[in-house]
User: What shape does this take?
Amino acid sequence: MFLTYLGRELRRRARQASIIALGLALGIGLVITVTALSSGVKNAQGEVLHSLYGQDTDITVTKTPKFSSAGSGFQRFRFGGTSGSGSRPKAGTTINVDSLTSTALGTLSNADVSKVAGLKNVAAAAGGLTLTDTKTTFKIPSENSSGGFGGFGGGGGGGSGSFGRFKLPPSISVDGTQVAGNGVALGPLSSAKLSSGRTFRASDANADVALVDSNYAKSNKLKVGSTVTLAKTKFTIVGIVSQSAASSPPDVFIPLERAQALGTAQGKSLKGEVNTIYVASTSAQNITTVSKDISTAVPGSTVTNQNDLAKELTGSISSASSLANNLGKWLAIAVLAAAFLLAVLLTSSAVARRVREFGTLKALGWTSRRVVGQVVGEAIAIGIIGGLVGVGLGFLGSALVSDFSGNLTASLAGPTTGSATPGGARTFTGGGFPGSGGGGIPGGGGFAGIRNASAAASHPVTVHLSAQVTGSAIAAAVILAIAGGLIAGGFGGWRAARLRPAAALARVE
Amino acid sequence: MYKLTGVTKDYPKGRGVVHALQGVDVTIDDGEWMAIQGPTGHGKSTLLQMLGGLDRPTSGHVLFGDHNEDLAELRESQVTKVRAESIGFIFQTFNLVQTLNAQENVETALVPLHIHAAERRQRAEAALADVGLADRAKHLPSELSGGQQQRVAIARALVKQPKVLLADEPTGNLDEGTRDEIIGLLEKLWRDQQLTMVLVTHDSTVARRAERLGIMRNGKLSIRQDTRQRGVPAGGGATGAGVQPAPTA
Assistant: This one.
């Protein structure tokens, strides 16, 4: 009888039921589309951000580099004499410099890595070195009066030496990556795909082996078995990896231990040092807590998680995120609230027209609960129909977003102090360009930092926005549909049940 | 079946109060057919509502059934149960559910009794057959005449085999011919099933056919024992204590 009565009643007021169902469908469809859009934007952001520092990394820990004051910030190359000592190579001598340096980021120790790995809710931690290998060849010019060679760009000890026009030397971005331990899944290499050869093994820790980026390999005609020279050391290429189009993925990966042995930062060896710690949390819910714990455990460090980096993203991805999370969210809530209100009003109106009918049923012995149940059942049925149509509209909306939104661009914000993007934009304190050697020879780090920053700003990453309907969105739709029915039916049913049968029967329809 | 003592019912109206019933005392025996007549607005339907537990008196007692349950004191759920099991109602405007067919309308009276669907269907079909509407079981109320709709309502009232049948102006919306038909049917059923029947009417022709007649005036009930004293009998001599014979077909 319940279903028979329910079906007949819905058929009787089919137009009204359709209006209610359509209202609910629009609200629910919008909620699903906006949720899918948010999820898609988040995935796109994740794709951009994960390519920077690896698939499973939740948090990165870095330190702002400290440069000495202008003038003495330049590392000086020693050519067999000290600056100003009057002892310098003969004019016309060719100098070859191959330096592997870290300048964009400050250093942290292996002990810091262990400290972070031991914190509560940390699933894994791995150290990494983001370095730049720069090869410079130049001839010693004619003598200058001040002795020594200053840096370029002023502030160095150099005087008015005529170096002529100096072009930025080519550089190779290098990532020193952990090859053993449970942190091996972290870092930029974890999001790269092996296209030929093999990846690192634990036994490669102290070997001169490398993985190269597929684009870099193609440009430089490299293959598995070729060699690449870093800091005057030949590394054999054992594998080639392809990486997603993110801002400046490393060209070459080498074992962390080798990077530590060969790399320098402001003239000091990087043995036992890293400049980024990649951290995986035990769960997404713990990320904020872990971030705080790391800040306490490693004072002076910059701790950044995905949410922080997401704020630094600019471009259409940022606009899409803002659209989904602000306008989209509130529009969906407003439409849903309006749909619920419409459902309540129309259901109440329908119940008011059936007061005498309900009074008769109560006279026949129907309990208030049974009468209310009938009304609520009708409202829930309409809600479920609206929910099903809403899910369909949600899928349609998401498909339209995916098809017509096109690609999103994402750039990291320009050079800012304290940004934790490994190898990314940095400001450089101190004057000129910090060198990596003894003289005022520009080091690679500064150039690499600028290269990365300009690359990030001038070559934004393109990712495709794909709005995906998730299971949780569908579940939310079902819950919303039932909730809409319960609210509308409950209110209407209460109206139906509260009248005494005599009063209900006295109503004129 | 019923014993009413000092039953009053007041309704607030603006700043004042309407005294719909003013101290009604009456006893209705098992198997009795009582008619209640009177001008409109003098409390006839209100009294019927007290008898059916559709409303509560302001004061007084409405004792019902073999166990003398006071309908005025029972909880709402208990009164609902009494209505479901023991009291059948017939209304002036039929009050059928428009979206259910005749058989389903009759079944609505059996739903509160938690009877299995198959048995419900069977009993509904039998009840419709008793009122001569077996062939109209699948018709919606909108497809039935007034008289047929009232027959469906009678079937609905009697399908649960109640102890009491309360009818509020059952022929009020019917023409003369149909009126006689319906009253004849009610009389037959009353006799066959030994019901206690209380019928409210403003129609003397209908009232005369009852065993006992009560007159409601200004919320007070006065009882007449013998309806033949009120007017011209419908036809034939008395067959019992004030019972009018059923009209011949």
Q: What stands out?
A: Chain A has 13 helices and 18 strands. The longest strand of chain A covers residues 122-139.
